[in-house]
Design goal:
- With 267 residues, this protein is α/β, with parallel strands linked by helices.
- The chain has twelve helices and nine strands.
- The chain is 33% helix and 17% strand.
- The longest helix has 14 residues.
- It is globular.
- It starts with 11 loop residues before the first strand and ends with a strand.
């Protein structure tokens, strides 16, 4: 049974990096805040310098950690892959939210500064922590593997599959913009549900391309939604999702066109 089939008929709502409107993205507190407001949680993972899996979206650390305060003399940019797991775990991945208020939730009063302050410091979660969180709370996860040119495809996938074998986990959908990762995952773990992420343009010969990857889902940027052959993909057993779409009315409109999964920052 595929990943999408684990949900009842109808739309599926994914908390994009957790409930990032109200909490610092890709942290355990953002995942906790999403519970009860979504069907699954999406998160991003990449490898540290010592090849440990860490949850973080950006390839650099300036936007979502306090690294510039902690290590002021280091050269910019602070690339995540250049730091050890222990160093990454020592950073505060939550205080930036108070300064930047990325979705205006503090200004609007949706969340009070004291609420965020009480949660600090937030650490960059390990993949193991995220998997355990999903298991404990019985919430499916969409884990996006970020592109990591420093490591070979073989190194990335071998390490990732070893972590999945080591840690009990909830239902998972694994996605990536790096389709070489997906192809290797399908070869090494053919029963693992996979989704291809795309932006800007559709791959040529789309159906045969996705079949060769071994994916069961195709997740497109909102700008590509209108040109996505949803019905044709569905006829070949490939479900479709859109990122990022926050307006419930818009979600409903795209659902009527055959899309099922919607990634949202606002839940």
């Amino acid at each position: 049974m595929g990943f999408y089939a684990t949900f009842p008929d109808g739309p599926i709502l994914a908390a994009h990096r957790g409930r990032r409107e109200l909490r610092p993205e890709n942290t355990l507190c953002a995942f906790e805040a999403a519970l009860g407001h979504c069907d699954l949680i999406e998160l991003d993972v990449q490898l540290s310098r010592d090849k440990e899996w860490i949850v973080c979206h950006d390839p650099t650390l300036e936007r979502t950690t306090d690294i510039e305060k902690r290590l002021p003399g280091h050269f910019r940019p602070h690339r995540l892959i250049e730091y050890s797991f222990d160093t990454l775990r020592s950073l505060d991945a939550g205080c930036w939210f108070l300064e930047r208020d990325p979705f205006g939730a503090l200004r609007s009063g949706k969340v009070r500064p004291e609420e965020i302050e009480a949660l600090l410091p937030q650490r960059l979660p390990s993949l193991a922590e995220a998997l355990r969180f999903g298991t404990e709370h019985k919430i499916p996860l969409n884990v996006e593997i970020k592109d990591m040119p420093t490591y070979t495809v073989e190194e990335v996938i071998r390490s990732f599959l070893a972590e999945l074998k080591r840690i009990p986990h909830p239902p998972l959908l694994i996605s990536s913009f790096n389709h070489r990762y997906l192809r290797r995952l399908h070869r090494e773990a053919p029963r693992l549900p996979l989704a291809a992420l795309v932006e800007a343009v559709h791959p040529p010969r789309l159906i045969s391309y996705l079949k060769a990857l071994g994916v069961e889902a195709y997740h497109v940027d909102l700008s590509l939604a209108a040109t996505t052959p949803v019905e044709l993909l569905g006829a070949h057993g490939i479900s479709c999702g859109i990122y990022v779409i926050n307006d419930p009315k818009e979600q409903k409109a795209w659902e009527s066109k055959g899309f099922r999964l919607f990634f949202a920052d606002r839940l």
